[in-house]
Each structure stands twice: as C-alpha cells, then as structure tokens.
C-alpha cells in the first residue's frame, strides 16, 4: 500500500482530485468508482473547479457509485444519487446515462444487484475506485462480518453506521436500515484504489487497517491484499499509526 500523508482535509482533497484528473486525462475511456459521505466532498469540489478551469472533460468517463440506501427516491436529498448529482454530475459535462448509482427503489433488488455487477463488468471494470472507511472498518456499506467473496448485494446497516449517518437526517429513526452496496469482491476487482481518510475519529480505523490482521471482522483489512492501493490520509487520521511507529510499515 502506498501511503501519502497530507496536512489536513483540504490537502487530501486536492491530492485526490489531482490523481483522478490525471486518470481522466490519460485513459481513453476512464471508469471511475465513486464514494459518498463527508470524506470525498472536497475532492468533488476540486474536480468541479478543474473542469470549470477547462483542464478536464468528463465526456468519456463512466462512473459507478459504491452504494445507495434502499427506499429513498433519487430526488430525496439524502439519497446518494441526489448527493452525486448535487456535488459533481450536474456541474460537469457528464451525461446522466454515463453515471451509475444502484437503484434503491428497484422492485426486484436482487436483480438490481446482479444488473449492477454485470454493468460494471461490461464497462471493462473500474479503473480507479475512490474509497472512504467507516469507523467500524466498513468499505462501501460492507459492514463487519461481510464475506470477502460478496458481489453487489443488499445489506442491513450496522447500528454504528446508522448512528454515524444520522447527522444527515432529521433523526436517527429516519436513516434507512438497508442499502445496496458493491461487494468486497467488486471493490477488490478495481484496478486501482484511492483510499481517503481524514480526521482523528478515524485514527483507530487507520491503525487497524494497516496493523490489524486481514479479517472479515474489519472489512477494510482486505485492502492489504490489493496490489494497487494508494492511501491519502491526513495527520490526524495517521496519529495513532505514527504514535506506534510508522517505520514498521515500510
Ligand atoms: P464519511 O463516511 O466519509 O462520511 O466519514 C465514510 C464511510 O462511512 O465509508
């Protein structure tokens, strides 16, 4: 795993956007895996800016988002489709047909999961997957205990995830209890993973990610086995790792 330490959230966002910008410039038909949540918001802002500055075009880019809540219509401001339109898609030259977010309102959720997985495969696979990490080690909505063999599937959200995401809703009881998520296997198939982590509240998770054993109890630990992961983390997120000697990682 390549590790880049940056000072703070803004630097992380800038660095991440530079990497994504380069892939968009270099690849003829880039396929991006995208994430939602607080972590990548700054990166999307930067990407909109480089688009406005004329440095990149998204016209050849296809995107796949990691996950979506079940039961929220796409117009709901808490749906991840809404988030993506609002933070990125509506501000750049990407047609909505090139953007993919699982449909959490699908009648047949299993079919939706299979179609999503098939669509990723048909696109040629994800070139670079942007990823955050939950305080409980989840990636996408693959909660602790998820098999490493999973493709896109329906999940029951862990109480800690519902609690962590309640900040976006009126109250905790409004947070959906289920979601569709790309599976661990889907994520591991990405050619490159850009893992973004910021803030002291993730310091324990970063420590476990880098020093813990590879175990389904801590889903992100599987990333130790991916050949091309670039972690960009800020000082606060790396604080526990550094306390315990980052040298042991090299
Ligand atoms: P966050 O979420 O970026 O809002 O912290 C990350 C995650 O839960 O994967």
**Amino- and carboxy-terminal Cα gap:** 10 Å
SS summary, helix count: 8
Average pLDDT: 96
- What is the tally of beta strands? 10
The CATH topology, please?
A: Rossmann fold
Low-confidence stretches: none
- Which cofactor or ligand species appear? 2-phosphoglycolic acid
The secondary-structure class comes to alpha/beta
* Content of β-strand: 15-25%
Can you tell me the CATH architecture? 3-Layer(aba) Sandwich
Question: How helical, in percent, are the residues?
Answer: 25-40%
Strand order of the largest sheet: 1-10-9-6-2-3-5
Task: Summarize the biggest pleated sheet.
Answer: 7 strands, parallel
Cα-atom radius of gyration: 17 Å
Overall form: globular
Count of distinct structural domains: 1
Structure characterization notes:
With 250 residues, the protein is of the alpha/beta class. It has 8 helices and 10 strands. It has a 7-stranded parallel beta sheet with strand order 1-10-9-6-2-3-5, covered by helices on one side. It has a 3-stranded antiparallel beta sheet with strand order 4-8-7, covered by helices on one side. Helix 2 (41-52) links the parallel strand 2 (31-34) and strand 3. Helix 1 crosses helix 2.
């Amino acid at each position: 795993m390549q590790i880049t330490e940056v000072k703070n959230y803004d630097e992380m966002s800038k660095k991440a956007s530079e990497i994504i910008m380069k892939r968009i410039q270099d690849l003829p038909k880039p396929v991006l895996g995208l994430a939602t949540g607080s972590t990548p918001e700054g990166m999307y802002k930067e990407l909109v800016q480089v688009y406005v500055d004329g440095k990149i075009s998204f016209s050849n880019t296809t995107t796949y988002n990691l996950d979506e809540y079940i039961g929220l219509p796409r117009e709901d401001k808490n749906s991840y489709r809404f988030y993506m339109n609002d933070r990125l898609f509506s501000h750049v030259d990407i047609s909505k047909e090139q953007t993919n977010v699982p449909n959490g309102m699908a009648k047949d959720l299993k079919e939706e999961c299979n179609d999503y997985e098939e669509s990723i495969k048909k696109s040629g696979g994800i070139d670079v997957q942007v990823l955050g990490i939950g305080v409980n080690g989840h990636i996408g909505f693959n909660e602790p205990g998820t098999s490493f063999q999973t493709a896109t599937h329906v999940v029951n959200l862990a109480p800690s995830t519902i609690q962590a995401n309640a900040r976006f809703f009126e109250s905790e009881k409004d947070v959906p209890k289920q979601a569709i998520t790309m599976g661990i296997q889907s994520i591991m198939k990405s050619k490159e993973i850009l893992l973004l982590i910021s803030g002291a509240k993730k310091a324990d998770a970063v420590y476990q990610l880098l020093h813990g054993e590879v175990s389904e109890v801590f889903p992100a630990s599987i990333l130790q086995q991916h050949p091309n992961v670039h972690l960009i983390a800020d000082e606060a997120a790396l604080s526990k790792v550094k306390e315990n000697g980052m040298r042991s990682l090299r």
